[in-house]
């Protein structure tokens, strides 16, 4: 007998219920990845994620070869390709991880119909990309939790299953495969210069190093922008090179306030996913409509994108993302608040730009965090405006983060780097750095007026 293991956002062999179930169900398994036209047409395949994905596929192929198999790669419409592979190999069942985006839900439904017609079985596995799947926890009143704290209280009481080992062998039948794609095969354009390397092996190496020490200091240090004291595991979680279940179990075993705070962040993934599963339209529409009449100003948006707003902390964070395809969470909060509140530009404009660059760019986490900051989402303080200068004092007091990412300002010592407009005119003139594109008080007042409907 033959089973298809359809990889999606679970590009790993360790703790992968999809792989284990397929291997357990049949004599032979087709470990299949489809380069899906639908994902490309949705504009989701950008050079940074394409480069990382190519690494992931090569790594997964290596892991499968080490177990006597290999990865089978096809290109086209995912449902049609699965149907073809099932015909060619006589596979009787298809195993797949459950996922939440409108795209993933449609894919699952279409696969179900197609397989039904040919009397094949679709087996959808819940605890692959989530720790606690959407729908498992519901408030008394409604279909999903709209506030994180009560969700998290329940989430942390759910027993987390034992992680599964990787299978020893994966016997694969003879079946046609395309060659492994490079990043350039998947997306046009150049990736950012300093991307992390993708793949399960690299992800596991980083997770082990993280859990072996730095995690214990996470609670105190995670917001220190220059300290770079977060795990940077988000790209590996996004592509499923790492299992969130396994990370929670291993962090819990480490224990202490740092590990606890880290596990709490992982709960945010599930929180956003249960919200998107219930309200898939919130990928594009306000979760809590605020009737914003967003401003359009291409020049201001361009300055924000390029990291030339004249606010050094905002610009540093935007440039970090352009360089590394990753931005510190504190930077994401500050830059998103600046765009949506100080400039009063539609959160969708910012969310799109983040999705164009972030290696961890993820519909649930990105769109719902943007909404959270813009005050159209699940935040309980929707009208809070972050002041980049206050943020600078608290999270980059010495200015090291700004000097690292804004070379024009690298020669200015200490916290003065956050207010280049106060430098003596002769120093100021020598810097190729813009004046602020907007006054902070002006932006804040306009935002509050707009939200008050005046
Ligand atoms: P750590 O601090 O080490 O946290 C561990 C893990 O917990 C992360 O890898 C991530 O999987 C999860 N996590 C942490 N914070 C959040 C959060 N607020 N929401 C959901 N999960 C979280 N995260 C993404 O994975 N993809 C995105 O596209 C994304 N877009 C964002 C956009 C905005 C405007 C904001 C404010 C946040 C966004 N985040 C996104 C959440 C968060 O910023 C990143 O997950 C985090 O910075 C990744 O770095 P890390 O792995 O070092 O995180």
From TrEMBL:
Organism name: Actinoallomurus spadix
Alphabetically ordered keywords of this record: Chromophore, FAD, Flavoprotein
Keyword Cell inner membrane among UniProt keywords: no
Cofactor: FAD
InterPro entries with a match to the protein in the record: Crypto/Photolyase_FAD-like_sf, Crypto/Photolyase_N_sf, Cryptochr/Photolyase_FAD-bd, Cryptochrome/DNA_photolyase_1, DNA_photolyase_1_CS_C, DNA_photolyase_N, Rossmann-like_a/b/a_fold
Keyword Hydrolase among UniProt keywords: no
Top-level taxonomic group: Bacteria
Name under which the protein is recorded: Deoxyribodipyrimidine photo-lyase
Record domain Photolyase/cryptochrome alpha/beta: where: 1-130
